[in-house]
């Protein structure tokens, strides 16, 4: 079953100057996909458009076969999409527990407490001090809280925008350990990541976006150490 499908997807900020151009992509259920590419290629724009935060000019998005093109955020969440933005992804003045409780408000009332408890059980670092303010957490813990918020509604597909941005190597390892556990739970992951080495170690598959178009699509293991990657990051097109 295909978890996420993009067909002839065109998106951006100005209809006369699309950033993402004719992207067609099928992400099978349970796959971990990383989107790589040079700065400014449109990676963040692509995933933010899928998540309903950037205008889609043409083409379509499907979740498990269902057309969700231009669906509002709450409808996307109900259809099984979770999104973790790169920044401002937690309420810094609220506690860990409160951050989770707010995210749980999308769920039926009777399900909320159990889902908050399940998320705390999944992230022991958060469970250790649920009353701590999110603003007092380390960068890695903050990313875990952001992921936990997105996972509360049990998405089938979780999209993450540079989950390791600004983190020290130790915290990068922690965040990627958490992502590995999430993937092992069967969630389809799509991540944009500058940390190519960590992303390729986690991912099953990598696609490379160059100037808004898919330039390469390969098993992640094939790209490790591949000189093509260096060329692509300098902005050259795939031959
Ligand atoms: N809010 C915005 N309004 C207008 N243009 C934008 C906006 N955000 C990004 N852009 C432009 O869209 C293009 C693609 O940017 P985007 O952030 O999607 O690329 P990226 O591949 O994620 O790059 P990076 O790796 O540097 O984050 C760039 O030319 C950028 O200037």
Instruction: Report the top-level CATH class of the domain at 2-89 and 155-233.
Output: Alpha Beta
CATH topology of the domain at 2-89 and 155-233: Rossmann fold
Name every ligand kind in the structure. Answer: adenosine-5'-triphosphate
Question: Termini separation (Å)?
Answer: 31 Å
Radius of gyration: 17 Å
Largest sheet: 6 strands, mixed
Number of helices in the DSSP assignment: 10
Give the strand order of the largest sheet, numbering strands 1, 2, ... along the chain: 6-7-8-3-9-10
The assigned CATH architecture of the domain at 2-89 and 155-233 is 3-Layer(aba) Sandwich
Which class best fits the helix and strand makeup? Answer: alpha/beta
Order of helices and strands: EEEHEEHEHHHHEHEHEEHH
Q: Could you name the CATH homologous superfamily of the domain at 2-89 and 155-233? A: P-loop containing nucleotide triphosphate hydrolases
Q: Compute the average pLDDT.
A: 91
Task: List unreliable stretches of 5+ residues.
Answer: 234-239
What proportion strand?
A: 25-35%
Keywords: Amino-acid transport, ATP-binding, Nucleotide-binding, Transport
InterPro entries: AAA+_ATPase, ABC_transporter-like_ATP-bd, BCAA_Transport_ATP-bd_LivF, P-loop_NTPase
Family: Belongs to the ABC transporter superfamily.
Domain ABC transporter: 4-236
């Amino acid at each position: 079953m295909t978890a996420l499908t993009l067909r002839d997807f065109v998106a951006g900020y100005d209809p006369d100057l699309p950033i993402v151009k004719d992207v067609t992509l099928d992400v099978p259920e349970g796959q971990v996909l990383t989107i790589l590419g040079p700065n400014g290629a449109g990676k963040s724009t692509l995933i933010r458009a899928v998540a309903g935060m950037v205008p889609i000019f043409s083409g379509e998005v499907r979740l498990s076969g269902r057309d969700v093109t231009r669906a509002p955020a709450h409808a996307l969440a109900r259809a099984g999409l979770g999104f973790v933005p790169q920044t401002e992804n937690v309420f810094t003045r609220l506690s860990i527990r409160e951050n989770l409780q707010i995210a749980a408000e999308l769920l039926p009332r009777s399900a909320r407490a159990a889902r908050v408890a399940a998320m705390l059980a999944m992230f022991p670092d958060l469970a250790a001090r649920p009353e701590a303010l999110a603003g007092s957490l380390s960068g890695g813990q903050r990313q875990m809280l952001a992921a936990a918020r997105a996972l509360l509604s049990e998405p089938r597909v979780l999209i993450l925008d540079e989950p390791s941005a600004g983190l020290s190597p130790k915290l990068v390892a922690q965040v990627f350990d958490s992502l590995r556990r999430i993937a092992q739970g069967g969630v389809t992951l799509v991540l944009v990541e500058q940390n190519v080495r960590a992303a390729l170690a986690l991912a099953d598959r990598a696609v490379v976006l160059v100037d808004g178009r898919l330039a390469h699509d390969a098993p992640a293991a094939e790209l490790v150490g591949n000189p093509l990657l260096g060329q692509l990051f300098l902005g050259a097109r795939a031959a």
